[in-house]
Every structure is written in structure tokens, then in C-alpha cells.
Specification:
FAD/NAD(P)-binding domain, 27% helix, D-Amino Acid Oxidase, Chain A, domain 2, globular, 9 helices, 382 residues, alpha+beta, binds flavin-adenine dinucleotide
Length: 382
């Protein structure tokens, strides 16, 4: 029995990376924590998609959080003996002259100061070296070494194991139907097969589904789910093992774990369905056509879609709103760029929940920022 008189000090809903990180860190702080995941942790459905990380954001709040996030990601991966799940292979952006000008400005104003600078070079002279990349189609390229790829499936499994070792309980294959409260305080969650599980603190880390859970409690959260998809190709084994991002054509190319992956977005949408859309497929083909020379020899092996939790300013939601019942928190809104944010977000929220002080870099991400007009103005996210 915990100090509060209930079995659980905290119930975390959702076993994505931030939910797992939160459960792990809360358990490290000796809190009694139950994590409930409706599928399984490290479910490839979610985890397979989220692989690339970078520190280059245009909003100082995001850039600073990503820099801290990278440190935490590497530290925690070491701590839980999953070091090789984080590979810093660098990131490349291919761009036109206008975008290169913007990158130069952001670099001087922000990234270099944070130790996350990029090198900007003309793309064409490199075309002879990188023969599989169609660099002739681009004017400039920016590259950085502080970024790379995370194996989320393995990292999630390792985090779950480490959280359990510290005393957290993880219930997989169990869906939370709603959050119960009396208008003032949280009472617990209603769970499939069990009914009410009582606690004074519920943290919703349920990705895009967080909004549905809030609605089930008669509450709202600023979150607009957005569909994205990955196309998996047989790896040609020739491309550089680095994420390659081409902002003007809404696509990302990643070579990892024997796959060449093209990630695309179908634009904002309210749908929770995870079906592929024609827009995604069309964007995928466009990305390949523009980035790879002679792409016709690539064999499409699989295509998968998932829903991203996106907030109105495409930046995370960490903490609670003063309009919600006491004891209700969210950890979501990681959009298409959560890789560097999510483990750190779990750590900072755990600190806040146990010690009562939100770390400085997490304060801007309050869910109340929209009502106060403190929007985080990010122009390099998707
Ligand atoms: C195609 C694609 C490519 C992407 N590429 C990248 C990338 O390269 N880099 C990057 O950083 N990010 C990327 N992302 C984004 C990344 O996947 C998301 O930011 C991330 O998955 C969001 O994490 P989450 O834990 O909030 O949500 P999820 O990963 O969706 O996790 C939420 C969990 O909560 C569970 N859940 C939901 N409802 C309930 C309930 N009622 N009861 C119990 N459990 C519940 C779900 O089963 C799920 O496991 C990509 C996303 C997509 C779709």
C-alpha cells in the first residue's frame, strides 16, 4: 500500500517510449507505479516508425529540450544496457537555396550555440561521391553528426525490463476505457475486465489516443491526430546509413536494420484509422524519385501507417492544465519528432511528480500555453 492509501501512487496509460521512461523513472524514485498498455510495449506498429532523431529545431524551447533529450537518451540506454540501440550516424538535409539561407540563419542564431551546429555545403560537388543519391537535384546539403537512429523496439523492451526490475508493474494487452474523477480530483481509471483501479494520479501517455481518453472523462486536450506512413524497401546496401531529410517534398529516407525506409505524411486529419492513404503513397514515390538515382530497382516489401499525436504548435504537451481535475497529467504531442524528446520527457515529468518542481527546459510545454498565448513557434517540424 502506498502513502496515499491506494495500491498505486501513479497509473501511466500507454507503453510508448515516454510512458515507459516515466514508469522507469518513477520506480527509480521508489514510487508505486502501474503502466497499462492496450497492445504490447515496443509494439512494432508504433515503434518501427519512430527511428530518426535530430537536435535541429527552430524554436529555442524545442532545440534546448532536444539537446537535453539526446543526453538522457544515451545515458538511459547505457543505464539499462541498451547502448547499441542509439546510433549517432548523423543526419543530412537536402535543400534548395532558399531553405539553405534559413538553415544558415538558424545555425548561427541557435544550433551552434547549443553544440548542435550543421555544416552547409553545395550538393552538386558531392554528387560524384554519393552515387546512389541524386544530389544533382538539390542545390545544398546540411549535415550534422549529432543525430541518428534509435532502435525503438529494442529500447522499449529494455526500458520495460528495467522498469519492472525497479518495481513497476506493466500490464500489457489491457485497455483503459476512461479516467474517473469527481470534478475536483482524479479517482482512478476504468480498465477492461477489471473495472475501476483507484489512484490519485493518472498520466495519459497514450499518444494520439490521449484525446479520446480525455473526452471520455468530459475533458479536452489540444491534440489533433495526424496520419503518417512508412514504406519499407529491400535495402540496396549502398546508401549512406544516415537519415536523409528533404523538407520541401515532405519525406524522409532512412536506412536501418536491413531496410530502406521512406517516411511520409498525409497532412493533418482527425482520423484514428491507420490505413495507408494515397497521399502517403504518392509522397513516398515522390521522395524516392527525387532522392535516389534510378529508383526502379527497389523492391517494396511492406507499407505501414500509424497515427501521430500532434499539438497545435507541433510541440510536446508535458504536465497538467489548471482546468483539469487534480492528479491528471499528459505526456504526449510528440508529433513526428519524438525520438529525442520522449525518454527525457518521461524523466522530467517523473521528477516533477515526485519532487514538485518542473525542470526549467520542460516548463514551456505546459498544456495551458495555448490559453495563455505562449505558443512555441516551430517551423522545422512535421
Ligand atoms: C510513419 C511515421 C514515421 C515517424 N518517424 C519518426 C521519426 O523518424 N522520428 C521520430 O522521432 N518520430 C517519428 N514518428 C513519430 C513517433 O512515432 C511518435 O511521436 C510517437 O510514436 C508518439 O509516441 P507516443 O508514445 O506518444 O504514442 P504511441 O507510440 O502511439 O504510444 C501510445 C501507446 O499508448 C497505447 N494506448 C493508446 N490508448 C490506450 C488505452 N486506452 N489504454 C492503454 N493503452 C493505450 C497505444 O497502444 C500505444 O502503445 C513517426 C511516426 C510515424 C507514424
Amino acid at each position: 500500500m502506498s502513502k496515499s492509501g491506494f495500491t498505486w501512487d501513479f497509473i501511466v496509460v500507454g507503453g510508448g517510449l515516454e510512458g515507459l521512461s516515466l514508469a522507469y523513472h518513477l520506480a527509480k524514485f521508489k514510487a508505486r507505479v502501474l503502466l497499462i498498455e492496450k497492445r504490447s510495449v515496443g509494439d512494432p506498429h508504433a515503434a518501427l516508425h519512430a527511428s530518426t532523431f535530430r537536435l535541429q529545431y527552430t524554436a529555442p524551447e524545442n532545440a534546448r529540450f532536444a539537446v537535453e533529450g539526446r543526453k538522457t537518451l544515451k545515458k538511459v540506454a547505457g543505464e539499462i544496457k541498451a547502448k547499441n540501440t542509439v546510433r549517432e550516424t548523423g543526419v543530412i538535409w537536402l535543400m534548395d537555396a532558399r531553405t539553405a539561407q534559413k538553415f544558415k540563419r538558424w545555425n548561427v542564431a541557435l544550433w551552434e550555440r547549443l553544440g548542435a551546429g550543421v555544416r552547409i555545403t553545395e550538393a552538386r560537388p558531392v554528387a560524384g561521391i554519393e552515387v546512389t543519391l541524386n544530389l544533382k537535384a538539390w542545390e545544398y546539403m546540411a549535415s550534422t553528426d549529432v543525430g541518428g537512429i534509435v532502435d525503438f523496439t529494442v529500447l522499449s523492451d529494455a526500458l520495460a525490463r528495467a522498469a519492472k526490475k525497479k518495481g513497476a508493474v506493466i500490464a500489457e494487452g489491457t485497455e483503459v476505457y476512461s479516467v474517473e474523477h469527481d470534478g475536483e480530483k482524479v479517482l482512478g481509471v476504468i480498465v477492461e475486465r477489471y473495472g475501476l483501479i483507484k489512484t490519485r494520479n493518472v498520466i495519459l501517455a497514450a499518444g494520439a489516443w490521449t484525446r479520446k481518453l480525455m473526452e471520455s472523462a468530459g475533458l479536452s486536450v489540444p491534440l489533433a491526430p495526424k496520419r503518417a506512413c512508412s514504406l519499407f524497401f529491400e535495402s540496396p546496401g549502398l546508401l549512406a546509413e544516415r537519415p536523409i531529410w528533404a523538407p520541401p517534398i515532405q519525406g524522409l529516407l532512412v536506412q536501418t536494420g536491413g531496410w530502406l525506409r521512406v517516411i511520409t505524411w498525409s497532412g493533418a486529419g482527425e482520423s484514428f484509422e491507420t490505413k495507408l492513404s494515397y497521399t502517403c503513397l504518392r509522397n513516398g514515390i515522390r521522395v524516392l524519385d527525387k532522392i535516389i538515382t534510378g529508383g526502379s530497382w527497389l523492391l517494396l516489401e511492406a507499407a505501414r501507417a500509424h497515427v501521430q499525436p500532434v499539438s497545435p504548435d507541433r510541440s510536446p504537451l508535458i504536465g497538467r492544465s489548471k482546468f483539469w481535475p487534480e492528479g491528471l497529467y499528459v505526456l504526449t504531442g510528440f508529433s513526428g519528432h519524438g525520438a529525442c524528446f520522449r525518454v527525457h520527457a518521461g524523466l522530467v515529468l517523473a521528477r516533477f511528480l515526485v519532487e514538485g518542481e518542473m525542470p526549467r527546459e520542460a516548463k514551456p510545454f505546459s498544456p495551458d500555453r495555448f490559453t495563455k498565448g505562449n505558443i512555441i513557434s516551430e517551423s522545422l517540424s512535421f
